[in-house]
Request: fold
Amino acid sequence: MSSLVQYVLLRSDLLKELGWSIGALVAQACHASTAVLHLYREDENTMNYLNDLDNMHKVILEVPNKESLKKVAEKLKENSIDHKLWIEQPENIPTCLALKPYPKDEVKKYVGKFKLYKETLNLVQV
Reply:
């Protein structure tokens, strides 16, 4: 069996254009990841993933904006790929999407066009 990976797609415009903090973005990814693991807790892939906690593999990918995130969610739904679109409340803002754990080969075609989430920060030395 190929190793399992959980893909998390996070909007980059939240940080770059809307001024959200790094902590807020990390929280969104955590919310989506936790929610999808709970929703699909009885799925064989999810159980196997969680039974090997020290070797969990997550990949955080960058999507440019809300429209791109919603488009991916629709494509996943059309193809019966289990996922959770996280919508931050009470603002009702779609921020992040997490797939349940899958073998990489099964879902790569849906997420392969997105790049790893990388953000250069201007850190001030104290």
Observations:
- The radius of gyration is 15 Å.
